[in-house]
């Protein structure tokens, strides 16, 4: 009589392989889709996010307008605006109507305002952060305990805070309002702008890093106005006249002359 081979060890091995593969896929997905470390356990959030090279406008239930820059995430807790607090990982413009105080948390800065327009940059993967106030007023302080300095700063239009968590620094500065207003109003304006300066404005506009390779480019300047173009559309419009090619990688935009 022929001895039957047991199927159980084979089935168990197959299940084990599937579980390991599933775990690896879940881990890899989590690395690229991980949530902010600022989220409170037990609280449910609605997440808004923008893709690479995209600026995305979001209107919140209290009429606050948020323009998310490239690869940014905004977390709104359940019950907002009864609890008027938000969490940002990335960069965004906030246009906050007058009302009860709104608090925006990041891993480096806590920004509180009863009504203001401001630009906030703070990625959890980076050490630096800043807040620019375009109108109204904001109260800014470190969102973590500092052993050396926990003094807040009160900002009005034209004032900013620059911070770096690694060196535990937060300083008050001033800036030019007009350029930030153009950015807020979705107007990227070039007025006979040299190419390196134009690339720098694009970096700020889309929140991306741009690397220039090859000869340092023709001595050409750019004139024109862009508003709702994506990063791809803007580069497509410029590459022939400026004499460059480009590719967008996961981490940066590479310009080649």
Textual characterization of the structure:
Helices cover 23% and strands 40% of the residues. It is of the alpha+beta class and 257 residues long.
SSE blueprint:
Layout: H1 8-33, E1 45-49, E2 56-59, E3 65-68, E4 73-77, E5 85-96, E6 102-105, E7 109-113, E8 116-122, E9 128-142, E10 153-156, E11 159-164, E12 169-174, H2 177-184, E13 188-194, H3 195-206, E14 210-213, E15 221-226, H4 231-242, E16 245-248, E17 253-256
Parallel strand pairs: 5-6, 14-17
Antiparallel strand pairs: 1-4, 2-3, 3-5, 4-5, 5-8, 6-7, 7-9, 8-9, 9-10, 9-11, 11-12, 13-15, 16-17
Short description:
23% of the residues lie in helices and 40% in strands.
List keywords for this structure.
globular, five-stranded mixed barrel, 17 strands, alpha+beta, three-stranded mixed beta sheet
């Amino acid at each position: 009589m022929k001895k039957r081979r047991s199927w159980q060890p084979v089935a168990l091995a197959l299940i084990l392989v599937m579980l390991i593969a599933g775990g690896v896929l879940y881990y890899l997905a989590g690395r690229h889709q991980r949530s902010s470390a600022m989220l409170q356990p037990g609280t449910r959030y609605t997440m808004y996010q923008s893709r690479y090279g995209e600026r995305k406008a979001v209107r919140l239930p209290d009429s606050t307008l948020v323009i998310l820059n490239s690869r940014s995430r905004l977390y709104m807790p359940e019950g907002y605006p009864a609890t008027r607090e938000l969490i940002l990982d990335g960069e965004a413009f906030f246009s906050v109507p007058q009302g009860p105080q709104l608090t925006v948390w990041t891993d480096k800065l806590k920004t509180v305002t009863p009504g203001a327009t401001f630009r906030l940059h703070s990625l959890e993967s980076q050490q630096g952060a800043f807040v620019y106030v375009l109108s109204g007023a904001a109260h800014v302080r470190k969102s973590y305990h500092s052993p050396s300095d926990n003094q807040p700063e009160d900002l009005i239009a034209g004032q900013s805070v620059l911070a770096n968590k690694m060196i535990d620094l937060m300083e008050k500065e001033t800036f030019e309002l007009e350029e930030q207003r153009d950015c807020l109003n979705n107007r990227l304006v070039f007025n006979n702008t040299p190419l390196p300066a134009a690339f720098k404005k694009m970096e700020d506009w889309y929140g991306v890093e741009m690397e220039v390779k090859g000869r340092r480019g023709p001595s050409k300047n750019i004139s024109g106005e862009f508003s709702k173009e994506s990063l791809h559309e803007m580069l497509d419009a410029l590459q022939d006249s400026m004499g460059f090619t480009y590719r967008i990688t996961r981490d940066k935009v590479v310009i080649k002359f």
